[in-house]
Structure formats: C-alpha cells, structure tokens
Amino acid sequence: MLKEWFITGTDTGVGKTRVTLALMQYYQQQGWRVVGMKPIATGCESTPAGLRNADAQQILQLSSLPIQYAQVNPYSFLPPIAPHLAAAQAHRVIEIEKIVRAYYQLSRLADIVLVEGIGGWRVPLNAQHTLKDMVLSLNLPVILVVGLRLGCINHALLTAETIVNDGCQLHGWIANHLTAEGNWQEVINSLEQRLSAPLLSVLPFSATDDGIPQIQMPPFLF
Fold first, then answer.
1. What are the b/e assignments for 177-209, b being 16+ CB within 10 Å?
2. In sequence order, what are the beta bridge partners of 35?
3. Considering its fold, how many domains does the chain have in total?
4. What phi and psi values does residue 52 have, to the nearest 5 degrees?
5. Which residue range is the domain that position 119 belongs to?
6. DSSP label at 124?
7. Strands 142-148 and 34-37: what pairing?
8. Strands 112-116 vs 34-37: parallel, antiparallel or unpaired
9. Which of 9, 86, 105, 151 has a beta carbon 3.0–4.6 Å from 77's, enabling a disulfide?
10. Using one digit for the tens of pLDDT, what is the confidence trace for 161-173?
11. Where in the sequence numbering do the catalytic residues fall?
12. Is residue 27 helix, strand or coil?
C-alpha cells in the first residue's frame, strides 16, 4: 500500500464524506487503486440486505476494487445519534480491534486507503474509548475537515491542538464551504496563520449532493 489517511472533522455535518470522495477520485485519476472505509455509521436505513448508510454506500461505489459493504462499514446502526449510544441501544459494543482487522484486509488490496471518521475527534465509541483511540490503533496520519461556518475557527484550533496532543500526526486540513453566503477568505487566512498543519485544499459550496467536487492537492501530500 502506498499511503493511507484518516479523515476527521471539527464536528458532524462538516463534509467528511464529501472530502473523502473527492480524495478518492483525485487519487484514482493519478492511477492508484483506492478504497475507502467508514468504519462506524449511525443513521442507517433498513434494507433487505441489512442496515445501510448512504455515505458508506457512496464510498463503496467509488472504490476501485470489488469489496463488500461490511468491509467499508463494519459497524452500522439505525438511530442518528452518537455511536456509543446507538451501539448501546442495539446491545452491541464497538470493538476497535474489529475495525483494525477490516482496515488491514483492505490495505493488502489497495494502494491507498481512506478512512472516514464519525462526528468529531472526541466522540465516544464505547465506555473506554473515543475516536482518537481508533486512530491511534490504526496509526494513520490525520486530515482535518473544517466546515466553514460560525464558530469554526475555535472548533478547528481546539481540534487540531487535541489531535497533536493525543499523539497523532495532523498532516493538513481542508476547508469546506457549507453555504453560498458570506466571504470566508478571512476565516481561512486566520486558520492558515494559526494552524501548524498546512491548508491542503478549499472545496466550493454545492447546492446539491450530486457529483464529486474536483480537488487540487499540493505535491507534498504524498
């Protein structure tokens, strides 16, 4: 495998899946075999094949290799709530070891594996562990998605500081426009001045979920 990344966000709903899909497409255009994972998903739908998450389905469809849904999304839950609460309602426990095993299965098949997180950096997974414990177990460098909205400077600075203090590598961050209103360039400039990790890309606003935004990445990402 050539490279792998963990995609986290300052909060839920900031565009982690959008960034994951854009990165998958970018690397595929470079000729690499790319697969993605969304290890834990809540807010799933019941289907004849079992619980399915729309974001995980998109990742599966874009993957370069014919993999199974369970490899992309080992843990799926029906209610759209925090993962530890959803797991408790389903009388299940999220085990990081299971996620690590699924990840290494994919890493043996692909050149690049992109792993999308859930919620924010400190969302609980079970009684003992949060998202950061999963990232530490996977030993992946982190890309932080910053959704451009009121409060994002504080959220981005706190999240970036915590990622580093937790012993993880913050490789860079991506700004994602969540609305068409406002001029966010000053916010982006403020974050560039204050974050030690580089700005990797800025994604424009899209009024629909159709299509995958084109992403331009600096050469030092590899």
1. bbeeeeebeebbeebeeebebebbbbbeebeee
2. 113
3. 1
4. -135, 140
5. 3-221
6. B
7. unpaired
8. parallel
9. 86
10. 999 999 999 999 9
11. 38
12. helix
